[in-house]
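hey so i finally got around to running both of the ones u sent me last week. sorry it took forever, my laptop kept dying halfway thru and i had to restart like 3 times lol. anyway pasting them below in the order u listed, first the sequence line then the structure token line for each. didnt double check formatting much so if smth looks off just lmk and ill redo it

first one:
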Amino acid sequence: MKFLRAFVRTILFTTATLGLYLIWFVVNLFIPNKIYWRQVIFDRWTWSFVKISGMRLEVIGTRPKPPFFLVSNHLGYADMAALRQAVTGVFVAKSEVLTWPVAGSIIRNLGTVFIDRQNRRDIPRAGRQILERLEAGEGMIVFPEGTTTKGETVLPFNSSFLHFAAEGNVPVSYAALSYGTPAGQPPASDYVCWWEDISFFAHMWRLFSLPFYTATVTFGEEPITSHDRKALAAELHQKVIEKFTPVL
């Protein structure tokens, strides 16, 4: 049964992905107002992942409205779908995401801002791009841990992701993500969180074999501002920990 469930879901999500990517390709060439259509396609893509994968999404707290800059802990690729279905925005991601098969190319074309964390000179460029997106009315979402975890705790936030926010005194919203699986099923820390050294497709097959899983997004009350990026990172980290429920 697990094999059949994973197989059917893989076919469905692949079909949805290719179909929406084709629509975006046409829209990108011929239709104006690309920001609007990019958000529509991104919303439909993440919605298809939520429905096909069996995600049951719960949102707690007040969702920020665009334009906003939002930080969250990072557990795996499912985070993107959960957060995008909770708020309207695009993501800031490490450049390694570009190596994800198929998904990396799609994520790039749907407006993601990439940061090369190994190159300090790339941070100001990414910061300028983020500010341009905010000024255009878009929401921006970043995972300042800089990597994924199995959900035992929240790693310290990398302050380089917040350089532009501190410099421009940009208010930063925050959210905590957590996952769960039904009784009798493998733990979410292994089947939903993607932290092990296994391929994207191998892990997605594992996730798609679950009958369903829960995703909880808990938003903070008020955005935080600071001119000190390290102090900003530390305060946001503490706020996210306070909202975070460990993944079992």
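and the second one:
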Amino acid sequence: MNKPENVIVFFIDGLHWKAPARLNMPVFNSLIKEGTYIEQSHMIMPHHPTVGEYGRIHSSSFPNPVLQEGTLFIKRGNKMLQDIFPSNQTTAFIVNTKAYTSVSNGFTINIHNPGITDEQVVKQSIELLHEYDVRYFRIHLQTPGNEGRFLSYTTPDKSYYRNIWGEGSPYVEAVENADMLLGVLTDDLKRTGKWESTLLIVTSDHGQSEKGWHPMVDKDSVITPMLFAGPSIAKGRRLSYFEHTDLTPTIAGLMGLEQPNKDGGAGMFIKEVMETIDTPAFQHPAYIKTINQQLNDFNALRARVMIAGETDSYYSSLISYLENELLTPEPFYHQDRFLEWYKAGNTAHLIEANNKILEQMRGELSKPGNND
């Protein structure tokens, strides 16, 4: 295997999975032909609690620690992707927000400056690449995600009201600008002779609702494009499925390093991105897609049970029973218990435990007399 010497993960924040096909993104689309493309990579719902234990520890939404650690089981003692590189090698993280400080520990160079533009992020990234031999570089452009969030609460007089694709959409402008900046970076890598030895991955930490931002129940919030290009990567290949938990193990495998975490929630080294691996037999258990659907189902069913409880106190008790594990040996592993998911032991069992509770809730709601 022609092992890459360096890896750059280029994030376009809040990138909608349809953007490469709908928008003017010539650089991204040219790289699709040069590498391996996944149109929809799945990440865990981008819930962002700001209170409780998660909010106390983490400054960003669920997908970010999951991506950096390569596992759904976020717990003390986990390593992150930057931790697997030898201490004498330079790693760097540059982004124009302070939202990701909790996943930045261990990088040699950290620049988290909300006062700089996407253009300045790329300019400073190139300067660092000229000055240092950066083995692993996370470059994150925050503006597209910010514009998506701002767009979500615009007023009806705007042509892009509740529509990220609308005429004059600042989200569209930011994404197309990010594509141009991706071209600035790749041009510099080619000009300085680093392109042939660099593994480049382009993706986002979460998706984007067509109404704007990334609400946790919107199906477009939990999918985003994923693109691999560089040494050993298959050219012109498309894979049907990928999960963000797979990114860290795949980078580790391609770089000849050990993945940081191998617990029951860890993703896999997807070898099918490599030119030496055939893809006809490629199958993925699709754990994250399943869990996201379970979370949406649970939240909807819980709301129905609570409404039923307004006229029948039995359903009020049912909620308490489920929350306190009185009817089942395990709780439903929902978003408010995210930091307890590791107690399931492995992802398959977590899904199994969740299914049992969903079946029970559906059964209770289908009983005669419940007219919710």
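quick thing i noticed on the 2nd:
The radius of gyration is 22 Å.
anyway thats it, ttyl
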